[in-house]
Amino acid sequence: MEEIRISPDYNWFRSTVPLKKIIVDDDDSKVWSLYDAGPKSIRCPIIFLPPVSGTAEVFFQQVLALTGWGYRVISLQYPVYWDLLEFCDGFRKLLDHLQLDKFLVDACLHVEEDCPGELC
After folding, report:
1. What would be one Gene Ontology cellular-component term for the protein (predicted)?
2. What Å distances lie between residue 34 and 7, 71, 80, 117, CA to CA?
3. Domain tally for the chain?
């Protein structure tokens, strides 16, 4: 992990893309953390959801690459929700807050064998 933190790419990412914290629920303890990079005029971004043990910054390389090609990319770190419906409700509120029309979600870090060259 230390190798990543001292890498030029990671440091460029952290110095150019701010971490935002947003509360969309009535419960102030439910804080969404996100990196939102690329043109804000794009209302149909690619959204990355980290694995359970990861954070929003695990996708920093994807964020850098895709924004370099002109895409808007949002990497999320979600708060604790105790059931799927509660999570979906919070996610919907976040999308409304960000005023997004459509989105593409990706939750994997690598290309799987059954989907070579495509988002998983």
Report:
1. trans-Golgi network transport vesicle
2. 21, 16, 15, 26
3. 1
Using the predicted structure, report yes or no on whether residue 115 has a pLDDT greater than 90.
Answer: no
Alpha-carbon gap, residue 74 to 39, rounded angstroms: 11
Q: What's the confidence (pLDDT) of residue 104?
A: 78
pLDDT for res 101: 82
How large is the average pLDDT for residues 3-17? 85
Domain that holds residue 13: 2-106
Whole-number pLDDT of residue 108: 57
Question: Could you tell me the CATH number of the domain that includes residue 60?
Answer: 3.40.50.1820
In this model, does residue 118 exceed pLDDT 80? no
Asked if residue 66 lies in contact with residue 48, where contact means CB atoms within 8 angstroms, the answer is no
Contact 47, 106 (CB under 8 A): yes
Pick the closest to residue 67 from 9, 23, 4, 6 (CA basis): 9
For residues 35 and 48, the answer to whether their CB atoms sit within 8 Å is no
| 10 φ/ψ angles, rounded to the nearest 5 degrees | -65, -45
